[in-house]
Write a structure and sequence with these properties.
The protein has helices spanning 3-16, 67-72, 91-94, 110-125, 178-190, and strands at 35-38, 44-48, 53-57, 60-64, 82-89, 98-99, 102-103, 128-129, 133-137, 140-148, 153-160, 166-173, 193-194. It is an alpha+beta fold. It has one domain (3-7, 53-190): Protein Transport Mog1p, Chain A, CATH 3.40.1000.
């Protein structure tokens, strides 16, 4: 799957992953992350809450708050469902991303990488996005932008990881429910680590 297809897939997950409003169960108490997921090739590791589900996806992984949610990715979520899809961009791949038709090259920051996704999503899918802001996540440079759709809410988060690579997270919930899950997903993203293949 090429970079453009991956980008579209991530954006479609956000568009299709939320629908109904209403009360949702609270996230794991105290945002505890007792489980660890390691990708099948051993390059990515992340901690996540008890009772949640993690699985490999080509180029990254997905974490969902239930098996039903995991199976619903790509369709409309019900109230209480939330998930994050992660995509690894090595420095070589990230450098080929373009913004305004110009390759990022060596201008690789979480903000520039996320800005590229924001530009593509606005142009191709008409998502409403907040401005990209930078912050630090567990000592790692990061950037974020909120997403708003009629069918749901979402969040893009890009984290700089080891060896000049980046992990782009697409987080999605039902309308009105992002605030209930946002900190849990940020806590998960803060634990991500990358180890290049040996």
């Amino acid at each position: 799957m090429n970079m453009r297809q991956w980008t579209l897939w991530l954006l479609l997950v956000v568009m299709m992953s939320a629908a109904a409003c209403g009360p949702a169960p609270a996230p794991t108490p105290d945002n505890a992350l007792p489980q660890t997921f390691t990708s099948s090739n051993g390059t990515l590791s992340v901690d996540y809450p008890a009772g949640w589900i993690a699985a490999d996806r080509a180029g990254g992984f997905v974490i969902a708050n239930s098996q039903t949610t995991l199976e619903s990715i790509g369709t409309a979520f019900s109230s209480g469902q939330s998930a994050m899809v992660a995509l690894l961009l090595t420095a070589d791949v990230a450098g080929t991303l373009t913004t305004g038709g110009v390759p990022l090259g060596d201008n690789l920051t979480p903000e520039s990488v996320l800005g590229t996704f924001a530009e593509q999503s606005s142009a191709q899918l008409g998502l409403q996005m907040s401005a990209v802001t930078t912050f630090t996540l567990n000592g790692k440079a990061a950037a974020r932008a909120n997403l708003s759709l009629e069918t749901g809410e979402g969040l893009f988060v890009t984290v700089a990881v080891e060896n000049g690579a980046f992990v782009v997270f697409t987080i999605s919930t039902a309308v009105g429910e992002l605030a209930q899950y946002e900190q849990t997903f940020l806590d998960i993203a803060a634990t991500v680590s990358y180890r290049p293949p040996q």
